[in-house]
Design a protein that fits this description.
The protein is of the alpha/beta class. The protein is built from 14 helices and twelve strands. α3 crosses α8 (219-232) and α12 packs across α14. It is globular. It binds pyridoxal-5'-phosphate. Pyridoxal-5'-phosphate binds next to α3. Pyridoxal-5'-phosphate binds at residues 79-81, 105, 107, 152, 177, 179-180, 199, 201, 211, 213.
Length: 384
């Protein structure tokens, strides 16, 4: 058992640590053992084995993650997609229907289209900022509601308070992908979400050197998802558990720096005469700025923008960048720049791109923790 802490900065450092420390070690060691001595355990799930996600490294992470979002329980998985697929396959059964946000991460959309459809589990997509339209999309077999805290790549913020009220009223299991916000900027279980998901590959680990996922929420649901993960096999390796546990210790410092850097960079871009439009919820011009201000503790480190010169100007800008990496993914300490239509949203048809408002010239930035003046100066030279 570990102690309870009140403040997130302290939880990040101490929650989950074994007490007393193992052999006095300040950092929990890596338990790189697939199996453990049998001590007469009565339940299969109590026998220690890496795939059962119950080694000391898993247990420490589960406690830290649950504590960060003020939730009952947590589970880590081999990737964000392992978390997402295990959750869907646990809460939904063949023939079920669910509602999902109309602008989802591409991998999630792919899972829905290619795997859930084969199981006769079908969604209807909702406009997250138009609560009046949701009721008409309900069916007798609707079981769950799936959203994201901040959408990719247009950085929209759905009306999460209304979403929770609607889910409760209609007995739907509420699930949210909280990857873009991180527990520093938003903690879904505090608002009443049943399940909060993360790709730990991004902000939680923060160093672009592992792939991992997390499911955080109600203990009974986490128990069912853990049982299913045991069958599906997407468990996290203890070595990766160690890296994630270590990476998370700087989460508050990193994310708050990224919040502040992103606002400065978004303001610079918005004031530049070659920039047509900037999407960042921290800007007053953003359509969901007031909502984001009310719901979130910070606006995050992700920005997207369009240049006046279209695709050619976007390509010129990307070719001229010197400091930031041109790379997909996000949430690391280094600034990454990408064009979503070439990476994360490559699979969208021309009609889907138009419908979701993602243009071929859109540029997305995952802001790092470098000095923001250096990133601005790099972007400025690339723009000119
Ligand atoms: N959720 C979001 C919002 C993501 O951006 C990603 C990956 O980019 C995932 C989930 C999937 O995570 P992973 O790549 O760790 O499987």
């Amino acid at each position: 058992m570990t102690e309870k802490f009140n403040n997130i900065e302290t939880k990040i450092i101490h929650a989950g640590d074994p007490k007393p420390p193992i052999k006095g070690a300040v950092c929990i060691p890596i338990f790189q053992s697939s199996t453990y001595e049998y001590k007469g355990e009565k339940l299969d799930s109590d026998v220690k084995y890496i795939r059962l996600s119950n080694t000391p490294n898993h247990q420490a992470l589960h406690q830290k993650l649950a504590s960060l979002e003020n939730a009952e329980s947590a589970l880590v998985t081999a990737s964000g997609m392992a978390a997402i697929s295990s959750v869907f396959l646990t809460v939904l059964s063949p023939g079920d229907h669910f509602l999902a946000l109309d602008c989802l991460y591409g991998g999630t959309k792919g899972f829905i289209n290619h795997i859930l459809s084969k199981l006769h589990i079908h969604p209807d997509f909702i406009d997250g900022n138009n609560p009046d339209s949701w009721e008409s999309q309900l069916k007798t077999e609707t079981r769950a509601l799936y959203v994201e805290t901040i959408t990719n790549p247009l950085l929209q913020v759905p009306d999460l308070n209304s979403i929770i009220q609607f889910a409760r009223k209609n007995n739907l299991i509420s699930i949210i992908d909280n990857t873009f916000a991180s527990p520093i900027n938003f903690r879904p279980p505090e608002m009443g979400f049943d399940i909060s998901l993360h790709s730990c590959t991004k902000y939680l680990n923060g160093h672009s050197d592992i792939v991992g996922g997390a499911v955080i929420g109600k203990a009974d649901l986490i128990k069912q998802i853990t049982n299913n993960l045991t069958h599906l096999g997407g468990s996290m390796d203890p070595n990766v558990c160690f890296l994630l546990y270590r990476g998370m210790k700087t989460l508050a410092l990193r994310v708050r720096t990224q919040n502040s850097n992103a606002l400065k960079i978004a303001e610079f871009l918005e004031s530049h005469d070659k920039v047509k439009k900037v999407n960042y919820p921290g800007l007053k011009s953003h359509p969901h700025h007031d909502l984001a201000k009310e719901i979130l503790d910070g606006y995050g480190g992700m920005i997207s923008f369009e240049l006046k010169g279209g695709i050619e100007a976007a390509e010129r800008f990307m070719n001229q960048i010197k400091l930031a990496f041109i790379a997909p993914s996000l949430g690391g300490v280094e600034t990454l720049v990408t064009r979503p239509v070439l990476t994360s949203h490559r699979g969208l048809s021309p009609e889907e791109k138009i419908k979701s408002g993602i243009s071929d010239s859109l540029i997305r930035v995952s802001v790092g923790i470098e000095n923001p003046e250096d990133i601005i100066s790099d972007f400025n030279q690339a723009l000119s």
